[in-house]
Recover the amino acids of this structure.
C-alpha cells in the first residue's frame, strides 16, 4: 500500500461546489448497488464519498469514476440518509474541473455566484466595447461594414486570439487529466480484478488504446450510448436526457465545423474574405441545421430543468444554468445575426443588424472563453476519462487472458 | 355513563400487562381492543428471542387471565373515538363496531365458518398467507372465543345464521358509540410493520418477497402452510435471504429511526429456519447488527456458528426472475467493496415498526416529530408520561420496543396510573407542584 496524503476538511471544501449534506452518509453502499452504470471495474459513488470523507484529495482527483457518472439521480432518490450521492458526484466533478484547471480561476467561479455573474456581465461589457470600439473610433463612416472592413477584422482577430488562448488551456487540461487519471488504477477496483498489465507489450497496449479511442469516440461521444440505459433514459420528451444532449452536441459540432471551414477554406485558401455567399450555399445550410439542433436541444433542456419532472432535474447549479442559457442564446442570436447580415446586405443603411451581430459575437466569445473553466469543460474531460477508463479496463482484460 | 378507574387502549402484550397489574390492585379496568381478539402482535409470532420460548405459550395465559379477570371489562372491536379531560377525570367516547354475533349465545363452535362460502385473504392473524372466512372465530386461541362477521366481505347469504346451533348470528346489530367515564387512560396502541412501499424491493408485488411477520407466521406452530414453503409456488426454499433495514433507517421512505427489533427477529427466524430446513442457505444482508439486549449478542454469535451467512451491505434492488427466484443486488464489504448479485428462492424483508394509531383528533397528546410515535416527555426517567397529565403510554405506542421491554413498560404504565388514581400524582399535578410542561423544558 502506498502512502495517501489526507486533507482534512475536504468534504466542506467540496460542499462549496454544490449544496448537499454528504456528511450524513453512513456508507451503506445502496448508491453503488442501485447505480445502473456502476460495475466492479469501477464502482461509485460510495467509494468516492468515502475518499472525500477521509480527505484523500489526490485519490479523488485521480478517479476516472467521477466522469463515468451521468447523474441519473437513482442513488439520490433511494439514499436512506438522503445524503444526495448524485449531487456529491456533480459537485466533485466541479471540484475536479477546478483542480485540473491550470489557472485555478474556476475555484472562484464555482464558489461565488456573485463573482461568476459579475464576471459574465463585465466580460459582456468588455466584448461589446471592443466590438463597438471600431464603430466609435473609425475615421471614416463609409468604412463601416459588417461583412468586411474594420469591424470584420476586429471580430476576426479577437476570435483567433480567443481560439489560441482556449486551445492552450484545453491542451494543459488534457495533459492534466492524463497525468491524474490515465495511469491510475481504479481505487474502487477489487484486487482480484486487477492483473499485472506490465505483461502486455507496448505494441499491444498501443493497439488497445488506439481501438478504444475509436470505440469511445463512436459510442460515447458521437452516439452517447450510456444515456440509453432504461433507468437513465426518462419517459417523456422533457425527461429524456440523451436526445437534448445529442442535439446540443451535434449542433455545436456542426456550427464549429462551418465556422472553421469559413475561416480556413473560404477566407484563407480561397481568399474570399468579407464575401457573403448566398443563403442557399451548403455552408449556410449546415449552419442552419446546427443552429436549429442547438436551439431545440437547449430549449428542451431549459424547459426540463424548469419543470423538474423527476429526480434527474432536481438540482441545477448556477454554472449549469449559465452554460445552457448561453448555449441557447448562442443559437438564437446566431439565427438573428444571420438574418441581420442578409438584411444589411440588401439595405446597407440599416444600423440594427450591427447590434445583433455584436450580441452574437459577445455571447459566443463568452461561451468559448469560459469553456475550459465551467460546465463546458466536461466536453474535454469526460471523453478522455472514458477513453482512459476503457483502455485500462481492456489492459486488465487482455492481461488476464495471457 | 359507566365508570371505570382506567381505560386501556389496546389489548396487545403491553395493554394486557397493564390491565392485569391494575386489575390485581383492585382498580376497575376497561380494556379496548380494535380487533376481534386480544393478543396483539405477539400471539401471531412463532418464538421469542433470545430464549426461543414459544410466543403463544406466554401470551395465551395472559389473554385468558385478562378475559376472566373480575376487575377487567373487555370490549373487543372497540376503539376510542374521543378522549377528553373532564375535571380530573376523562370522558372516553368508544366506537363499538358491530360483531353481528350475539356474544352471550356464541359458543365458538365454528359451525358458521364451515357454512360460510366467502373465502378471504386479509392481513389479519395469518398476514394474508392463509385463508379465512367472512364469519368465524378469528383464530384457534382467540380470546374471547367468539365468532365475528366481517361486513366488508359478507354477502349476507344467511348460511351462517342457519348453521348456528344457538342462533347467535344477528344481522340487526349496528355500530354504536358509548361514553364512559375514566380516571386515567393508558395508550397501548402498538405498531404496524412498515408498509412494503419501497419500489426497489418490488413495492409488495413480488410473490416470494415476504415480510418479517409473514416469515414468523410461516415458522409458527400454527403456521398456515404447516411447514416452510414459499408463497409463490409452494417450493421448499433452498436459499433464503433476509434484508435488514428494509423498512427503517431509511429517510427515502420516511422512517429515519432504527426499529430496534428487526436484527434480533431476523436472527431468530434464521435460527429457526436452520432447524426447519437444515440444508438451506440462509443469508442476512445487514448494515450493522444491533444486538444490544441481554443475551442478544450471544444469540447472534450462535446463529453465526450455526452457519447463517452474514453479509454486510445494504440491499439496493431486488429483481424477480421468471421462475419466481429473486436477484438481490448489493454492494458487499469484505476486504474491498464490490457490487454483487445473488440469487435466492425466498427473500424476507425485515421491516421496521411504525405507529399503528395516531392520536390526532382523538386525544390531545403530542407525537414525536421524527418517529410519529407518541411522544414521551421524560423518556429517560419516566418513560410512560405523555404530554397530557393522566394519560400514560405503554408498549410500542411510545416507540419501538421488543417484547420484554413492552411488558416492562406495560407494568410501569400501570404503576403510574395507580399513582394517579390513588391521588398522589394527580393532586401534585393539580396543585401545580408537578407542571408537566415545565418538566419537559
Amino acid at each position: 500500500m502506498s502512502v495517501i496524503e489526507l486533507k482534512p476538511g475536504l468534504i466542506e471544501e467540496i460542499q462549496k461546489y454544490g449544496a448537499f449534506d454528504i456528511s450524513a452518509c453512513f456508507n451503506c453502499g445502496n448508491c453503488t448497488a442501485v447505480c445502473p452504470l456502476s460495475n466492479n471495474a469501477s464502482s461509485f459513488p460510495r467509494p468516492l464519498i468515502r475518499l472525500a470523507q477521509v480527505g484523500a484529495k489526490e485519490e479523488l482527483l485521480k478517479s476516472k469514476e467521477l466522469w463515468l457518472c451521468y447523474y441519473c439521480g437513482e442513488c439520490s432518490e433511494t439514499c436512506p440518509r438522503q445524503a444526495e450521492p448524485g449531487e456529491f458526484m456533480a459537485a466533485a466533478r466541479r471540484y475536479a474541473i477546478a483542480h485540473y484547471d491550470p489557472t485555478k480561476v474556476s475555484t472562484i467561479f464555482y464558489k461565488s455566484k456573485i463573482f461568476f455573474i459579475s464576471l459574465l456581465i463585465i466580460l459582456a461589457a468588455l466584448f461589446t466595447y471592443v466590438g463597438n470600439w471600431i464603430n466609435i473610433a473609425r475615421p471614416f463612416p463609409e468604412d463601416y461594414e459588417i461583412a468586411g472592413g474594420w469591424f470584420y477584422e476586429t471580430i476576426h482577430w479577437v476570435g483567433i486570439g480567443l481560439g489560441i488562448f482556449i486551445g492552450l488551456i484545453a491542451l494543459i487540461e488534457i495533459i492534466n487529466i492524463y497525468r491524474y487519471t490515465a495511469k491510475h488504477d481504479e481505487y474502487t477496483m477489487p484486487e482480484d480484478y486487477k492483473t499485472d498489465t506490465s505483461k502486455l507489450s507496448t505494441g499491444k497496449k498501443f493497439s488497445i488504446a488506439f481501438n478504444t479511442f475509436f470505440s469511445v469516440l463512436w459510442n460515447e461521444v458521437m452516439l452517447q450510448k450510456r444515456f440509453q440505459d432504461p433507468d437513465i433514459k426518462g419517459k417523456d420528451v422533457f425527461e429524456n436526457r440523451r436526445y437534448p444532449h445529442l442535439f446540443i452536441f451535434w449542433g455545436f459540432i456542426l456550427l464549429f465545423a462551418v465556422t472553421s471551414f469559413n475561416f480556413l477554406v473560404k477566407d484563407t485558401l480561397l481568399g474570399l474574405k468579407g464575401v457573403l455567399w448566398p443563403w442557399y450555399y451548403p455552408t449556410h445550410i449546415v449552419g442552419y441545421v446546427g443552429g436549429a439542433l442547438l436551439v431545440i436541444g437547449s430549449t428542451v433542456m431549459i424547459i426540463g430543468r424548469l419543470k423538474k419532472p423527476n429526480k434527474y432535474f432536481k438540482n441545477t447549479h448556477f454554472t449549469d444554468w449559465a452554460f445552457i442559457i448561453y448555449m441557447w442564446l448562442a443559437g438564437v442570436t446566431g439565427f438573428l445575426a444571420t438574418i441581420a447580415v442578409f438584411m444589411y446586405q440588401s439595405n446597407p443603411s440599416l444600423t440594427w443588424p450591427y447590434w445583433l451581430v455584436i450580441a452574437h459575437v459577445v455571447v459566443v466569445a463568452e461561451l468559448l472563453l469560459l469553456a475550459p473553466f465551467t460546465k463546458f469543460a466536461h466536453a474535454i474531460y469526460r471523453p478522455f476519462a472514458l477513453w482512459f477508463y476503457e483502455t485500462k479496463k481492456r489492459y486488465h482484460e487482455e492481461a488476464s487472458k495471457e | 355513563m359507566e365508570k371505570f378507574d382506567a381505560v386501556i387502549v389496546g389489548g396487545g402484550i403491553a395493554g394486557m400487562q397493564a390491565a392485569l397489574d391494575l386489575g390485581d390492585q383492585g382498580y376497575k379496568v376497561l380494556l379496548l381492543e380494535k380487533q376481534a381478539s386480544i393478543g396483539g402482535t405477539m400471539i401471531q409470532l412463532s418464538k421469542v428471542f433470545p430464549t426461543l420460548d414459544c410466543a403463544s405459550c406466554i401470551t395465551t395465559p395472559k389473554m385468558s387471565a385478562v378475559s376472566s379477570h373480575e376487575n377487567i371489562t373487555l370490549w373487543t372491536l372497540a376503539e376510542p373515538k374521543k378522549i377528553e379531560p373532564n375535571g380530573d377525570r376523562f370522558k372516553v367516547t368508544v366506537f363499538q363496531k358491530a360483531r353481528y354475533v350475539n356474544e352471550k349465545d356464541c359458543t365458538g363452535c365454528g359451525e358458521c365458518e364451515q357454512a360460510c362460502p366467502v373465502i378471504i385473504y386479509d392481513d389479519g392473524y395469518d398476514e394474508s398467507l392463509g385463508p379465512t372466512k367472512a364469519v368465524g372465530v378469528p383464530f384457534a386461541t382467540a380470546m374471547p372465543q367468539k365468532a365475528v362477521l366481517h361486513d366488508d366481505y359478507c354477502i349476507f347469504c344467511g348460511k351462517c345464521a342457519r348453521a348456528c346451533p344457538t342462533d347467535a348470528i344477528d344481522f340487526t346489530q349496528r355500530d354504536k358509540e358509548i361514553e364512559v367515564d375514566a380516571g386515567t387512560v393508558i395508550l397501548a396502541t402498538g405498531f404496524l410493520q412498515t408498509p412494503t412501499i419501497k419500489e426497489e424491493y418490488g413495492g409488495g408485488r413480488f410473490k416470494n418477497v415476504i415480510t418479517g411477520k409473514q416469515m414468523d407466521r410461516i415458522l409458527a406452530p400454527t403456521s398456515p402452510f404447516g411447514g416452510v414453503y414459499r408463497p409463490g409456488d409452494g417450493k421448499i426454499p433452498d436459499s433464503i435471504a433476509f434484508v435488514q433495514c428494509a423498512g427503517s433507517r431509511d429517510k427515502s421512505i420516511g422512517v429515519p429511526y432504527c426499529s430496534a427489533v428487526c436484527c434480533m427477529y431476523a436472527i431468530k427466524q434464521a435460527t429457526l429456519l436452520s432447524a426447519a430446513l437444515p440444508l438451506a442457505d440462509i443469508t442476512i444482508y445487514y448494515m450493522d447488527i444491533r444486538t444490544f439486549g441481554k443475551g442478544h449478542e450471544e444469540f447472534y454469535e450462535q446463529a453465526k456458528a450455526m452457519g447463517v451467512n452474514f453479509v454486510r451491505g445494504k440491499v439496493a434492488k431486488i429483481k424477480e426472475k421468471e421462475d419466481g427466484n429473486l436477484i438481490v443486488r448489493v454492494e458487499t464489504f469484505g476486504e474491498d467493496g464490490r457490487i454483487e448479485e445473488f440469487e435466492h428462492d425466498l427473500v424476507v424483508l425485515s421491516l421496521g415498526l411504525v405507529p399503528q394509531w395516531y392520536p390526532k383528533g382523538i386525544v390531545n397528546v403530542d407525537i414525536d416529530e421524527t418517529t410519529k410515535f407518541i411522544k414521551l416527555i421524560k423518556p429517560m426517567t419516566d418513560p410512560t408520561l405523555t404530554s397530557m397529565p393522566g394519560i400514560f403510554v405503554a408498549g410500542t405506542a411510545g416507540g419501538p420496543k421488543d417484547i420484554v421491554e413492552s411488558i416492562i413498560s406495560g407494568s410501569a404504565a400501570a404503576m403510574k396510573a395507580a399513582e394517579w388514581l390513588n391521588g398522589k400524582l394527580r393532586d401534585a399535578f393539580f396543585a401545580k407542584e408537578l407542571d408537566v410542561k415545565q418538566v419537559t423544558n
About this structure: Residues 46 and 259 of chain A are 43 Å apart (CA to CA).
